[in-house]
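Two proteins follow. First one:
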Amino acid sequence: MSTGFAVKKVLEQPELESASTRELLRELLVRLGEDPGRDGLLKTPDRMQKALEHLTRGYKEDADRVLNGALFTVSYDEMVIVKDIEMFSLCEHHLLPFFGKVHVAYIPNGKVVGLSKIPRVVDIFARRLQVQERLTVQIAETIQSAIQPQGVGVVIEARHLCVMMRGVEKQHSSAVTSHMLGSFRESRETRDEFLSLMRNGKNGSAF
């Protein structure tokens, strides 16, 4: 009788391809050793689904369209910086959060982009499964491609829960990545100006 019951349970389980996200998340709770039927977890699969959809909504958004819809012709050729952009993302290796600040600068070449669109681009790429290095490159190269400035610089400072909560468990470490294009790569003076303005008022703190 026990064998028949086990077979019946296996047959009743939905195939992975046809299972709903909620069913998969409920199964995950079971495999972690929890009881998804207890009061505190009854609605957890639904909450998890909504949270994951929110945290990965960048897959459904187009950064090029956001930038191309907000370009303006302006006679300005000095550096434009949007710094301290709050960023939250999910590490693709462990699906644990990493978070921090993004600093973006560019030198216009006849066109500027609406300032609110740069944080929007950051969010579009951050709301995907990511590694910090790729995120840095994607932001810089998308801005460079869309508005063709003289140059772009992007710096990200972030803390990773996969480092803080597991593995080496270092609570105060942070990672810094940068990607420089055009005049930011070619001119040390331009690069130094960006880094100096980025750090201005931060008192040496990464956050």
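Second one, unrelated to the first:
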Amino acid sequence: MQCPQCGKETAAGDQRCSACGHELTKALTRLKNPLVRKRLFLLGGGLLVVFGVLVFLFFLLPDRTKKEFVRRPANLGGELTGEGPDTSGQFGRKGVEIGPNAVYGQITLIRRGVITVKSLNTGKEYTIYVGHRTNYTPRRYPVVGEKVKVVYIDDKGQLKATQVEIRT
């Protein structure tokens, strides 16, 4: 090994130069520092690239899981087409709803996104969710006390209105 101060050749295991007395261990650590820095830089860059790839895979790629969609029946309300008011002005038979997914009743409570309808045929109360996809006839929101015919779908236990027909 060569002494960095005087340039004389010294033995590999010496801690001091035999000619000038310069400490060789400090010179060795100074020589090793650029290698250590380079290794740390490469390691840090590699970790940054791996982290970037993970972020891309988990957050930016689309979700590949299967989503369960609620299918809307093709002939929604079609089972009610032959139904009309009987001689007493009621829809359907007493004690039976007017269809499997329809109720004729009176509005008892209105909250944001929810109406409560008390069936005139059975006396049972239904809490039905309404939203931007609900069709109203006439095109207005019902008020408490009005009679309505509501066609709904059952979405995992929640009744969601598709049609609200206001009767006078």
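SUMMARY FIELD: Residues 95 and 123 are 8 Å apart (CA to CA). The two ends are 107 Å apart (CA to CA).
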